[in-house]
Amino acid sequence: xxxxxxxxxxxxxxxxxxxxxxxxxxxxxxxxxxxxxxxxxxxxxxxxxxxxxxxxxxxxxxxxxxxxxxxxxxxxxxxxxxxxxxxxxxxxxxxxxxxxxxxxxxxxxxxxxxxxxxxxxxxxxxxxxxxxxxxxxxxxxxxxxxxxxxxxxxxxxxxxxxxxxxxxxxxxxxxxxxxxxxxxxxxxxxxxxxxxxxxxxxxxxxxxxxxxxxxxxxxxxxxxxxxxxxxxxxxxxxxxxxxxxxxxxxxxxxxxxxxxxxxxxxxxxxxxxxxxxxxxxxxxxxxxxxxxxxxxxxxxxxxxxxxxxxxxxxxxxxxxxxxxxxxxxxxxxxxxxxxxxxxxxxxxxxxxxxxxxxxxxxxxxxxxxxxxxxxxxxxxxxxxxxxxxxxxxxxxx
Length: 397
Fold this sequence. Notes:
Structural class: mainly alpha
Radius of gyration: 20 Å
Distance between the termini: 41 Å
Helix content: over 70%
Order of helices and strands: HHHHHHHHHHHHHHHH
């Protein structure tokens, strides 16, 4: 098997960082196109939103067990296979505009994205150690936030210029290009293959999930990411249908949301040596305050700028909390990096998609007030999660 060459390690590291945001890119690039897709396909808003949910659920659930496969059979060949299938699925969506076909391809994309990003997150634990791995894992959510920044911005212009299919053509060509460089410069990073023993693997999963600080940490980062999911799914219809703006404006609003998320991650990186609980406790209290103010103000002033300003503030704090707890969970079980990476990534998608889609339908989000109330509810749940998380870490220590 082709092993990772040290002389190409810097190129492989760059490629890994390019692929880590692929999940977010695959969901966010066609967010400005959701209303147009519903009209073009002749389906309801909820049916188009379901394509996002199916991707997130399939990606999240598959990540829960893909880590053990990658720890047993390696990263390299599976990654190449997944890139090929993902690219083909993207072209099929663009060429066969039928909602049933889109659902099937989105599920396939979710599974292949899981294979790709779980392997790439584990790559850093395979190839680096000590302060290096701590440095790189602390960058993950910052890099991941590039998708919400870039994708809707590009998607808005693609929608206006070429139509919604162009988003999927771009995904297909992009992954095909990355595939060439992966084949040329990367190799197998796993050094110690684990035997594929089903009983032993189940015991590893069970042990991780029974670890209180790890499982509660998953809940916190899942709730934090659900704020982005809810805004991403709901905002196109509010901005374009309620306020009458174009998909380009939707793209710009998501651009601002993504920048806020990234700045939160960068701030947490700058404060990496500060006390973990001082940081996240302060952030969640501020998040509660802003979500509360948004709820109160929205009943008197519910314009576009109220939606945008409070969203930026809340998403900044969400990115800050997410980055701190995410890095903690990834480093919690270094001996089973693939499994830990899979459980962490899968937990984010499963929790955020269920919470996001469930709250969207429960509150029937169609205006600023309903988004504000959902934000407040998630902030309260995050506050409770951090309280339990702190107790679990203290008890462990």
